[in-house]
Amino acid sequence: MSLRVDDLAVHYRTTRGDVQALDGVTFEIADGEIMGVAGESGCGKTTLGKALIRLETRMKHVRGTVSLDGEKLPIADDRAMNPYRYRKVSLIPQYAMSAMNPTRKIGRMIRELVTAKGVAYEDVRPELERRLRLVGLDEAILGRYPIELSGGMKQRVVLVLATLLDPSLLIGDEVTSALDVTSQKAVARALVEFRDREFVRSVVVVTHDISVLYQMADTILVMYAGRLAEKASATTVIDQPLHPYTKMLVGALPKVGERYDDRRLTGIVGRPPSLLDPPAGCRFRDRCPLAMARCEEQPPFLEVAPGHQVACWAVA
Ligand SMILES: Nc1ncnc2c1ncn2[C@@H]1O[C@H](COP(=O)(O)OP(=O)(O)OP(=O)(O)O)[C@@H](O)[C@H]1O
C-alpha cells in the first residue's frame, strides 16, 4: 500500500469561523496507482493535495492521519515534513508553469532547486537530460528562458523536475489545465510513462475537468463539499457511476458524437452548502433526486464492490 489517508479533517481559519474544507476523508492509493480527484470548484480538491505535503498557515489539521509506504507523515508539523518534501512527496502546484522565474534559464532554475534540497546538480544532470529526452525535449532547453517554451513544454519540464528524485508520491494540481488538447495529451502521456518507469510510485491528480482523468487516471475519487462521494476505477466512475452526484457530474460531460442540438449540457442545479457551517448528514441531499429521511444522517463511505466505494444511503 502506497498512501493511506485515515479520517482526515482540515479546516481554514477565517474571521467568520472555520471553513471545514476536508471532513472524514479516508482512502488508499495502491503502488503504481494514478488517482484523479474530481468535483466542483470549492469541494476541497486542492486542500486535499496540499494537506499531503504542506499545510498553509491558515490551514488547521483537525484530525486524521496520512501514511506513505507504511510510515506516518508528520503533516501537522511543517518542519518535520521538510525531509519528506520533494524526495518522498512532490507537488506540481496549480499554475506551476506560469510561476517559473522569467529571469532564470531553465537549467539554472533546476540547479538552484535541487541544490536547495541538498543534491548536487552535476550528480542528477545525466538523469535530468535523459528524462527531458523521454518527454520529447532536447537538453538544449536547459539554456533557454521559460518565455521561449510553449505551455506544454514548460509543463513537461515541471513534471521532470518534480519527479527527478523518484518520489514515492506525486501530487499534480490542474497539471493539464490551460493547455491546448494536444499538449494536454502529451503531458498526460508523460505522466503515465513516468509512473510506468517507476520514476514515481503513485500519483494524485487534482482537476476540475473529469474528462481529462479518462486519459491518465486508473481510479477517480469524487469529492463533494469537503467529503468523499465515490471512488472506483476511472472506467467505472465514467461509465457506471453509482453516487447521484457522480452521475450528475458525468452526465454534464459532452458525449462523443452527440450534437449540441440533440442534448443541451445540463449542469447541476443548485449550489453546494457553505463549508463555514455545513449541514449535518449527507451534504448533497438538498440537490439530490434520491434524498430520503435517512440522509439526515451522514452515509458511511462503504465498499459496494471490490475497489468501488460510495457514500450514499440509496446505493449502499
Ligand atoms: N486560504 C483559504 N482560506 C479560507 N478558505 C479557503 C482557503 N482556501 C480554500 N478555502 C475554502 O476551502 C474550501 C475548499 O477549497 P479548495 O480550494 O480546496 O477547493 P477546490 O475543489 O480545489 O476548488 P477549485 O477547483 O476552485 O480549485 C472552499 O470552501 C474554499 O472557499
Automatic annotation (TrEMBL):
A Pfam match: oligo_HPY
Keywords, in A-Z order: ATP-binding, Nucleotide-binding, Transport
Keyword Nucleotide-binding carried by entry: yes
Domain named ABC transporter: residues: 3-250
SUPFAM superfamilies the UniProt entry points to: P-loop containing nucleoside triphosphate hydrolases
Lipid metabolism recorded as keyword: no
GO molecular function term, any single one: ATP binding
Superkingdom per UniProt: Bacteria
InterPro entries listed in its UniProt record: AAA+_ATPase, ABC_transporter-like_ATP-bd, ABC_transporter-like_CS, Oligopep_ABC_C, P-loop_NTPase
Record NCBIfam families: oligo_HPY
Name this polypeptide is given: ABC transporter ATP-binding protein
